[in-house]
Design brief:
The chain is of the alpha+beta class and 383 residues long. The protein contains 14 helices and 8 strands. It has 4 domains: 71 residues; 54 residues, no CATH class; 101 residues, Tetrahydropterin Synthase, Chain A, CATH 3.30.479.30; 71 residues, no CATH class. Strand 6 and strand 7 form a beta hairpin. Its main location: membrane.
Length: 383
């Protein structure tokens, strides 16, 4: 019988050899557990138990053996992640196998029910439409089908028609508080269309309804950042800004916003009256300014004319005769002959008797000339 120390050493050597053999077989056991769907937690605990038994002896050799065992301990987290990945691949393989089987059965059904199955399998979409096909709940590769004829398998294929024509949406009147705290009611019209049929079906439940709701909120948000005078005078720029915002937001839904137009801006009745009064006052002020400018120009013209006439007595007499002709042309029954201004001026400037006689003679001559001119005018009028 061996001494106790020798027997203990032999037992340690035997356990160490078994542990080393177990470490070599670790990888194969782990792969086997993954294939059978069993997690690596139990195996790791068993492996740690063996290493703890091997590390019981004291001394440097036992410490080194413990460090080696710890460094070679399997990573349980990586093992579980690998297991889940493998499980997903297995499920995908099973789903692919099941889908292939269903496709085979559907094709067999089509062949067995010919020619009646042709009425079910072949579909037609118009020039302005596209068909988005789903096979076993998944989008088929190749995008939307159409225009024209396309083929589907019964029982496993379904499709949705998408209209690509431009649609119009009348945005209902929205009560908006402007930046300068004025409440207005604004409505608009939005022109949009589906640009990507597949995205409009797969990414959003109802692309048209979502676009309409977004148009309402965009209209309120845009008008709320503008002053009243900007809303009334800058409709084109506001419409362009709304079109850009809507187009960017609906691009992920497969929608293209082509145009936005602001239809009407309704103001409160009191504000309308105030603005009308302000506009009327502004028009009256402009009219007064224009009239004053006209009077100023007329005064300048009269002053220039008086300077010209004052320097030429003959021109003053000619103007006097022209005025009389104008009066007689109006067929008035009474004509007033004013005393010539030059004659009055002449009387005021001189006290000489001879000068007065000369003035009287000149006045008589002017009177005769005037009477003759009036008589000639009356004769021409009578003829």
């Amino acid at each position: 019988m061996a001494p106790p120390q020798v027997g203990h050493t032999a037992a340690i050597a035997t356990i160490t050899a078994a542990s080393t053999h177990h470490q070599h077989q670790h990888y194969h056991h782990q792969q086997q557990h993954q294939r059978t769907g069993v997690g690596g937690g139990g195996y790791g605990r068993k492996h740690q138990h063996h290493h703890l038994i091997a590390a019981m002896p004291t001394g440097n050799s036992s410490s080194n053996s413990q460090r080696e065992t710890t460094s070679k301990r399997p990573d349980t987290t990586v093992s579980v992640s690998t297991m889940y990945t493998q499980a997903e691949e297995d499920v995908g393989d099973k789903s692919s196998t099941c889908g292939t089987l269903l496709i085979f059965l559907s094709v067999a059904l089509v062949i067995l029910t010919l020619p009646f199955s042709l009425f079910v399998c072949f579909k037609v979409v118009q020039e302005y439409e596209r068909a988005v096909i789903f096979r076993l709940g998944r989008l088929m590769q190749g995008g939307a089908k159409g225009p024209g004829i396309f083929f589907i398998l019964p029982c496993i294929d379904s499709y949705a028609r998408v209209d690509l024509r431009t649609r119009t949406y009348d945005v209902p009147p929205q009560e908006v508080l402007t930046k300068d705290s004025v409440t207005v009611s604004v409505d608009a019209v939005v022109y949009y269309r589906v640009s990507n049929a597949t995205v409009s079906i797969a990414n959003v439940e109802n692309a048209h309804h979502s676009t309409r709701l977004l148009a309402q909120t965009t209209l309120r948000n845009t008008m709320g950042t503008r002053h009243l005078h900007e809303i009334l005078s800058e409709r084109v720029s506001i419409s362009g800004s709304m079109q850009v915002q809507l187009d960017e937001a609906t691009d992920a839904w497969g929608i293209k916003v082509e145009r936005v137009e602001i239809k009407d801006v309704r103001l409160p009745v009191q504000l309308q009256r105030a603005m009308a009064a302000e506009a009327e006052a502004a028009r009256e002020a402009r009219a007064k300014v224009i009239a004053a400018e006209g009077e100023q120009k007329a005064s300048k013209a009269l002053r220039e004319a008086s300077e010209v006439i004052g320097g030429s007595p003959a021109a003053l007499q000619l103007r006097y005769l022209q005025t009389l002709s104008t009066i007689s042309a109006e067929k008035n029954s009474t004509i007033v002959f004013p005393l010539p201004i030059d004659l009055i001026t002449y009387f005021l400037k001189t006290n000489d008797e001879n000068t007065k006689q000369n003035a009287k003679a000149a006045a008589a001559a002017i009177a005769r000339t005037t009477v003759e001119a009036i008589a000639q005018q009356q004769q021409s009028t009578a003829m």
